[in-house]
Amino acid sequence: MSIARSMLQLKSHFPLYLGGKPIFNAGSCFSVKDKYTNKVATIVSSATSQQIDEAIMFASGSERELRGVPLYERKNILNTIVEKLKERFEEMSQYITVETGKPIKISRVEMLRAIDTFTLASEEVQRLHGYTERYDYSSTNTGVRGRVERFPRGLVSCITPFNFPVNLIAHKIAPAIAVGCPFVVKPSPKTPVSALVLGEILAETSLLEKSWSILPCKNSLAPLFVEDPRIKMVSFTGGLEVGMAIKRSAVNSVSTSLALELGGDAATIIDDYDLDLNKLADTLLFAGMYQSGQSCISLQRLFVHENKYSQLLKLLVEKAQKLAIGDPLNVNTMISPLITMDAAVKVEELVQDAIERGAKCHCGGKRKDSLYYPTILTDVPKESRLAQEEAFGPVIYVEKFKDWKKVIERVNSSRFGLQAGIYTDNVFKIEYAFNNLEVGGVVVNAPCASRADAQPYGGIKDSGFGREGLKSAMEEMTEVKTMLMKNIDKY
């Protein structure tokens, strides 16, 4: 269902949430633009450095009390969030589209995923098990047993990007609630509205008030969410440059744990076997072009066996030229503006650099304001910027290959290593790819852009470290404590 822009009803001013309470900062606020019309959509209260400090004080001070919240109460909180998200599904989908510019049909998928994320967290709460084990494998440990349990690390600082303004916050705060960690959230200043609506929902639950805050603010205050010694874990999703700065800042504190998801130039390999190339072309285009390529696992590099190359390339170019471009509130739209003009200009520069170095542009390759047209390239030189950087735009470049082992090496030549997709019917090639691809995840018979919200998700090399996905994130947000017991069976 499409939405008439005249039917949108955003509040004129959204408060931040400090210690679980809404705060309107009349003297400290910023505007959020509708990314399609480029007009101001609403005003958001912006946190000051003093408020950030106060939020950290509240949250760190609540650690002990929050740790004692029973599992059934945590489950109830998470289930309440799920129900509220369902009630506000269409409203929040529209907020996502307005502030990100992504098509409404993609925003609705994000809401479905956010609901799944909180649902998974409510289920994982029931599996927060410790265990016991015997250590009398040696005569030096006669009569020794161990009890092992996980305890919440403490305050988690959540720093999130613009491209999934609900679900990427969900992936940080849902596991925090499940394990009993307080949290502060710094949403992207480009897309804070969805986070604040999520704050409205949190405020309607029984979650301990002072244990959480959602604090939109200018990026110059971001170090306050990293360098404070009261913060026990930083969970960051965003760009490489900022992620590396966070890593350097946290080096000074041995007690601060890090989880960094920094993006990549994801690849997919198409082997030579019986495939419906027409259907495959649609799938691959979606993987590279959904929300205009602004996803860390968006298909950027496509390696196609030489026997399939020409036919698949022809289909990709034909279909890319037919993708619907326009208002993201129209349900048929596939390509809409990028998040900012600067983002579109960067994509333009990457493509132009590749073309100047010898790449061939089969379609697209042009920009109109913050809109970049879907682009298919071939013959992209290895020394070009596009071959070395994350495009984060609607750009796919295609290469042919003949040898499976060599194409695996080609994928691994990237500085990034988040996720890769492979299409093959050969189990030995699947096993070889899984063992040798330098990535955090391998997707079989689907593109690199596929993600299950329950999976351990994250990368290696310059794509970061640590894992999200509910169970994995809950493990990241807890630490193991062991009790050694000797001769307790001698009573």
TrEMBL record:
<dbReference type="GO" id="GO:0008911">
    <property type="term" value="F:lactaldehyde dehydrogenase (NAD+) activity"/>
</dbReference>
<dbReference type="InterPro" id="IPR015590">
    <property type="entry name" value="Aldehyde_DH_dom"/>
</dbReference>
<dbReference type="InterPro" id="IPR051020">
    <property type="entry name" value="ALDH-related_metabolic_enz"/>
</dbReference>
<dbReference type="InterPro" id="IPR016161">
    <property type="entry name" value="Ald_DH/histidinol_DH"/>
</dbReference>
<dbReference type="InterPro" id="IPR016163">
    <property type="entry name" value="Ald_DH_C"/>
</dbReference>
<protein>
    <recommendedName>
        <fullName>NADP-dependent glyceraldehyde-3-phosphate dehydrogenase</fullName>
        <ecNumber>1.2.1.9</ecNumber>
    </recommendedName>
</protein>
<dbReference type="InterPro" id="IPR016162">
    <property type="entry name" value="Ald_DH_N"/>
</dbReference>
<keyword id="KW-0560">Oxidoreductase</keyword>
<comment type="similarity">
    <text>Belongs to the aldehyde dehydrogenase family.</text>
</comment>
<feature type="domain" description="Aldehyde dehydrogenase">
    <location>
        <begin position="29"/>
        <end position="482"/>
    </location>
</feature>
<dbReference type="GO" id="GO:0008886">
    <property type="term" value="F:glyceraldehyde-3-phosphate dehydrogenase (NADP+) (non-phosphorylating) activity"/>
</dbReference>
<dbReference type="Pfam" id="PF00171">
    <property type="entry name" value="Aldedh"/>
</dbReference>
